[in-house]
From TrEMBL:
<keyword id="KW-0001">2Fe-2S</keyword>
<protein>
    <recommendedName>
        <fullName>Rieske domain-containing protein</fullName>
    </recommendedName>
</protein>
<dbReference type="InterPro" id="IPR050584">
    <property type="entry name" value="Cholesterol_7-desaturase"/>
</dbReference>
<dbReference type="Pfam" id="PF00355">
    <property type="entry name" value="Rieske"/>
</dbReference>
<dbReference type="GO" id="GO:0016491">
    <property type="term" value="F:oxidoreductase activity"/>
</dbReference>
<keyword id="KW-0479">Metal-binding</keyword>
<keyword id="KW-0408">Iron</keyword>
<keyword id="KW-0411">Iron-sulfur</keyword>
<keyword id="KW-0560">Oxidoreductase</keyword>
<dbReference type="InterPro" id="IPR036922">
    <property type="entry name" value="Rieske_2Fe-2S_sf"/>
</dbReference>
<feature type="domain" description="Rieske">
    <location>
        <begin position="22"/>
        <end position="119"/>
    </location>
</feature>
<dbReference type="GO" id="GO:0051537">
    <property type="term" value="F:2 iron, 2 sulfur cluster binding"/>
</dbReference>
<dbReference type="GO" id="GO:0046872">
    <property type="term" value="F:metal ion binding"/>
</dbReference>
<dbReference type="InterPro" id="IPR017941">
    <property type="entry name" value="Rieske_2Fe-2S"/>
</dbReference>
Length: 319
């Protein structure tokens, strides 16, 4: 790959990337048997709760009878009760017998991983769910990032995550060797691998330099353009971050889960705080240049490296 000034810049076309998505809703302990949680995407509103078997249930927020919003309903041991005509929807989505007849509420698949709840919106078959390889599962500890509203579109964020050119300008990281980009079209996984060294002098740069002996191996994978698995190998210290994008036309809600290796309680706390600080510094650096960006697809397609990303974006376009 040849290095030249970044060519992503401005203008026009905006892609809508909305098919088949696992969304991060929140921490597992936020979904309880006593409270209805509402979750909103650009196209779908969902309500979530736990049933008496402790399973997370996710329904279309709008009652299949006349459309009242179930978020202001209530929970019973039998299911969720609509606030308007009191129809009770059981965990399987079917209503209990009611004077208005039998109804069925649209149900969404849920998953509990990394101490958090995910909901799946889309057709079957569902896409591959991210895994991590750097930290063994029995040694993982998690911390959830609160949802942030980022004034950038999803496609701009996706291209940025795989853009090797901006690393030097925005993050003060110099590439060591050639990065590799691989697009698994069948599973819609875009993978980016690179090794970098720190060339900046801010506090976070100095810490990174010191921890990593100035050699940072990074693996970024995008799963269908919505979930990002980011793995950083700093030698003795390894970090994993799962980012979830919830895109809207002019902004994106970004939330994430930081995964670190468990050791001793005091170290765990410090390690999590330090990793959170470093990841935040890194991600915050991206926000300003991405704000208000409109992706120039023509230029993206003209570059041999970015063409792979353009291909990936197009295959995720809403049909
Ligand atoms: S609108 Fe929900 S029961 Fe009538
Ligand atoms: Fe970046």
């Amino acid at each position: 790959m040849q290095y030249s000034p970044p060519i992503i810049s401005c203008l026009t076309e905006r892609l809508v990337v909305l098919k088949e998505v696992w969304y991060l809703v929140g921490e597992s302990n936020e979904i309880t048997k006593s409270e209805i949680v509402s979750f909103l995407t650009d196209k779908q509103e969902i309500v979530l709760f736990r049933n008496s078997e402790n399973e997370v249930i996710a329904f279309d927020a709008h009652c299949s009878h006349l459309g009242a919003n179930l978020k202001s309903g209530r929970l019973s041991t039998e299911g969720i009760i609509c606030p308007l005509h009191q129809i009770c929807f059981q965990s399987n989505g079917k209503s209990k017998p009611s004077p208005f007849g039998q109804y069925e509420q649209k149900k969404f698949k849920t998953k509990e991983r990394f101490g958090s709840v995910f909901v799946y919106i889309g057709e079957e078959p569902e896409p591959v769910f991210p895994d991590f390889s750097l930290i063994p599962e029995n040694k993982q500890m998690f911390e959830t990032f609160r949802t942030q509203k980022v004034m950038a579109t999803q496609d701009a964020i996706l291209v940025n995550a795989f853009d090797p050119y901006h690393l030097e300008f925005v993050h003060k990281r110099k590439l060591m060797g050639s990065p590799t980009l691989h697009w698994d079209k069948k599973n819609r996984i875009l993978e980016f691998l690179y090794t970098s060294q720190v060339i900046g002098y801010k506090l976070s740069d100095c810490i990174m330099k010191w921890i990593s002996k100035n050699q940072i191996q990074v693996r970024i994978r995008s799963f269908n353009g919505h979930l990002f698995a980011i793995e950083s190998d700093l030698g003795k210290v390894k970090s994993q971050l799962l980012l979830s994008l919830n895109p809207f036309p002019t902004y994106t809600l970004v939330s994430g889960i930081l995964v670190q290796k468990k050791t001793f309680p005091v170290f765990n706390f410090l390690r999590m705080k330090l990793a959170g600080f470093l990841f935040r510094r890194f991600l915050l650096a991206d926000l300003k240049p991405l704000e208000g960006m409109k992706l120039q697809m023509d230029h993206l397609k003209q570059d041999s490296y970015f063409r792979v990303i353009a291909d990936c974006l197009e295959s995720m376009k809403k049909e």
